[in-house]
Amino acid sequence: MAKNDKIASQISDKDKKTSLGESLIMLQLKEKEAMMFIKNMQENIKVIIDTAVNLNFLAELKFCFVHVNWFFCMIVNNTPQYFPAEYTFGVFSLKNGIEDVHHTIVSAKIPLGYRREALEISQNSHKIPVEYEGGETDFAVMYDKLANFLESRKIVDQYPYLFTRKAFTREAQSLIARLCDAAQQDKEQFKIYELESLFVHLANELFKKRKDRDMDLIPVYAHKIFENYTYRFDKGFECHFHKYVDGGPEYCSTSVLQQWAWTLCDEFCAPLNIEMQPGIHQPDRFDRNPNHFDKRSLVSMMNNLRVRDVPQATAGTDGVLSMTGVSEQHRWNRSSRTYQEEMRRRNESKPVQVIDCSKFQDGTSTSNDKSSITEFASKPAKISNVERAEYLNERPLRPPNIDPRMYITSVDDLLPTDDENFPPIGGRGVSNRSRTFQSRKAPLGKGQGHT
């Protein structure tokens, strides 16, 4: 029966599948749907930008951004699904920057078998503890809060398009699918678009007023600009959790949205004659300017610090053990120096003698320094063969044992010819030279004692 089914499937093209068990027909349909989705995305973004330009409100036009941090990835029906750890939705415009933010930390229970991966990804990226006490646990409640946040931004009973980077599209789609499934809602009402495509259409319209940009390289520039480290480490715009965590500005979802907003403002505010304001269109970097230091703001920040606001690390955060059974925190505690050890090392350390060669060239050094350098330069740099042999206990070299015949004749004379290896059988068409076989003796060298 199985053999007949195999033969029938090979003859017909109806039930052909891949090695993963996926139907080829379904894969072709999904590929066509993806191409159609990209085409519709480009058309919709172009219509939005062109309409805003014609009505002269491109600076006030609002876009919705989304970024997702996740704990682990699981494969369901050959489709990756990401378990969210934190997500942020933000409303952005070129005139006002990030206007409103909806941020949530997920504290739902991790399924059995994925806790190790969740701990490792959390420790290496966003540092959010697994099953964090101050987060949300019900995905249906999360959907209701998100729907209320986007309700006022609806256009003709349709939620606004959600923009994220192309590299984060799957994470955002997985989040929307999980929230909609928990609330029993249709996930097709949310459209996830690429932020790079939005940049391309904005650049095609606004880079016409800039002479320092090449219009032909806009698609490449759009994918490259969001990978830069220009604003990745600017502090002050993180969520309440990542304010006190190492690497918070780099991985916090709220901070990532601010970085995208600053990138767009840096490129498109000048063509629209929008004045760049610190904290809105660009990060507030007053602490990097030594001539401008706000002492009052620093004092107020120090007075507002509260120990109770600092998130405490749980046992699960530092409980990731290596293959040798040692945690990262234990390794740092054992390998790092204590204060007493560091002070003893500094007291016992010898000062480093620095020789400035430029002083010797200028002639400003003393005679003692010059004499020491000349003595060092006069020392032989090479070691003789005798000293080297005695030092390494080596035997003296001897001439190689080479056959002297190689010096007399060439290599071609010693190679056998085809006539010697394959003598002719005889018959018509064979030359007299091929019929006669002559044996050649290899020439001998001198000193062999025979002729």
Main sheet overview:
5 strands, mixed
Count of DSSP H/I helices? 19
Cα end-to-end separation: 84 Å
- Which sequence of strands runs across the widest sheet? 3-2-1-4-5
Net shape = extended
Mean pLDDT: 80
CATH-defined superfamily of the domain at 34-272: Ribonuclease H-like superfamily/Ribonuclease H
What is the CATH architecture assignment of the domain at 34-272?
2-Layer Sandwich
Class computed from helices, strands and strand pairing: alpha/beta
The proportion of residues in beta strands is 5-15%
In CATH, the topology of the domain at 34-272 is named Nucleotidyltransferase, domain 5
H/E series = HHEEEHHEHEHHHHHHHHHHHHHH
* CATH C-level name of the domain at 34-272: Alpha Beta
**Low-confidence parts:** 309-317
Give the proportion of residues in helices.
40-55%
Radius of gyration: 38 Å
Number of strands: 5
Structure explained in plain terms:
- The chain has 451 residues and is α/β, with parallel strands linked by helices.
- The protein has a domain at 34-272: 2-Layer Sandwich (Nucleotidyltransferase, domain 5), CATH 3.30.420.
- 42% of the residues lie in helices and 10% in strands.
- The chain has helices at residues 2-11, 24-55, 115-124, 139-151, 169-183, 195-206, 218-225, 248-251, 253-268, 295-303, 328-335, 339-348, 357-362, 367-378, 385-392, 405-408, 411-414, 418-421, 432-435, and strands at residues 63-76, 79-93, 97-105, 162-164, 192-194.
- A 5-stranded mixed beta sheet has the order 3-2-1-4-5, with helices on both faces.
- Helix 6 packs across helix 7.
- The radius of gyration is 38 Å and the shape is extended.
- The protein starts with a helix and ends in a 16-residue tail after the last helix.
- Residues 309-317 have low confidence and may be disordered.
